[in-house]
Design a protein that fits this description.
The complex is a heterodimer of chains A (181) and B (149). Chain A has helices at 2-23, 73-88, 102-112, 126-130, 158-176, and strands spanning 42-44, 52-54, 63-68, 93-98, 118-122, 138-142, 148-153. Chain A is of the alpha/beta class and 181 residues long. Chain A has a single domain (26-174), classed as Glutaredoxin (3-Layer(aba) Sandwich), CATH 3.40.30.10. Chain B is mainly alpha-helical and 149 residues long. Chain B has 5 helices and no strands. Classes of the chains: A alpha/beta (181), B mainly alpha (149). The A-B interface holds A 26-27, 29-33, 99, 124-126, 128-132, 134-135 and B 53-54, 56, 66-67, 70-71, 74, 93-97, 99.
Chain lengths: 181, 149
């Protein structure tokens, strides 16, 4: 019994590991920022370089940071979803235009519609590095206290939005009502 | 083929090989080198320890992805600013997690990873010894009347 049982158990265990390994996406790198204070930034606005976009000013309510660029195919793919999300007005969408050409980015938004409350321009990619961005599109959810609550790496879909983002936004904003004014 | 011919052939092949591996090494990092060779050596060493996250099985020294270029720029600036190697590694880990390091750190999460080779070696030795002992005992027992177990 032991003679067959042990190798069999080991083979099954190995099989489980391999099977789980197949289901996992190796390109997904979990963010160490979850639960931590979001990195602060002040960047020029895409539409008006004289107007700075400061992350500090967004504190007090949950907000979403979407990292995109006109060179990014996944960003085009998720654009209509972002437009639909923006129309619900659930949360301010802040764009981080990553290593992009300002004119091309403005052109993209006027042609396809602008889902963002404001877009911060990061042509050198320094703020993106602070946020641990490695592949657009990436979407962060930041709580009213400035902590990173969730990160989605891949084009946004309505399913991800309603399953992962909306409940967290509601909980975060609800928790803030008695404390905030 | 005479020995002399062979060695000429081998020399040519070796030269061809060296040229072939030297070209990609030249192509990646086009930034100006540090004036101080010690700083350049540190820069190259750290670059070879950090994973390029968009091109996952390459280091940032190997890759010409824009993210790798940006991360090399960060490393270069931090070295210029006088940061230590550990401070640079911590900067990367704080942003990208342990996965960014090709040489994993010793942390509680990683203890099993580090101990695994030793544990597997011990397990293998143990199993091997048991099999050898068992067979030796069986051979002794079988000795006089082979074939019956």
């Amino acid at each position: 019994m032991l003679k067959f049982g042990v190798p069999l158990a080991l083979a099954v265990l190995l099989g489980v590991f391999l099977f789980v390994g197949l289901q996992r996406d190796p390109s997904y790198v979990p963010s160490p920022l979850i639960g931590k204070q979001a990195p602060e930034f002040t960047l020029p606005s895409l539409h008006d370089p004289d107007y700075p976009v400061a992350s500090k000013e967004l504190a007090g309510k949950a907000w979403v940071l979407n990292v995109w660029g006109t060179w990014c195919g996944g960003c085009r793919q998720e654009h209509d979803t972002l437009m639909a999300i923006a129309r619900t007005g659930a949360v301010p969408l802040i764009g981080l235009n990553w290593k992009d050409d300002g004119a091309a980015a403005q052109q993209w938004l006027s042609a396809l519609g602008n889902p963002y409350a404001v877009v911060a321009s990061d042509p050198e990619g320094r703020v993106a590095i602070d946020w641990g961005v490695y592949g657009a599109p990436e979407t962060f959810l930041i709580g009213p206290d400035g902590k990173v609550l969730f990160k989605h790496i891949a084009p946004m879909t309505m399913e991800v939005w309603t399953k992962e983002f909306l409940p967290r936004i509601q909980a975060a904003n609800a928790g803030n009502v008695p404390a905030g004014g | 083929m005479s020995l002399l011919h062979f060695s000429r052939f081998a020399r040519t092949m070796l030269l061809a090989l060296l040229v072939a591996i030297a070209v990609p090494a030249l192509a990646i990092d086009t930034e100006r080198a540090f004036d101080d060779p010690a700083l350049q050596a540190r820069y190259e060493m750290i670059g070879r320890e950090l994973r390029c996250l968009v091109c996952q099985n390459q280091t940032i020294a190997d890759s010409n992805a824009t993210l790798a270029q940006d991360l090399r720029r960060e490393v270069r600036e931090m070295i210029t600013a006088g940061k230590t190697d550990d401070e640079i590694r911590t900067f990367m880990v704080d942003r990208y997690g342990d996965f960014v390091l090709y040489k994993p750190r010793m942390t509680p999460v990683n203890y099993l990873l580090w101990a695994a080779p030793v544990l597997l070696l011990l397990l293998g030795t143990f199993i091997g010894l048991r099999i050898i002992r068992k067979q030796a005992a069986q051979a002794d027992a079988d000795g006089p009347e082979a074939g019956q177990s």
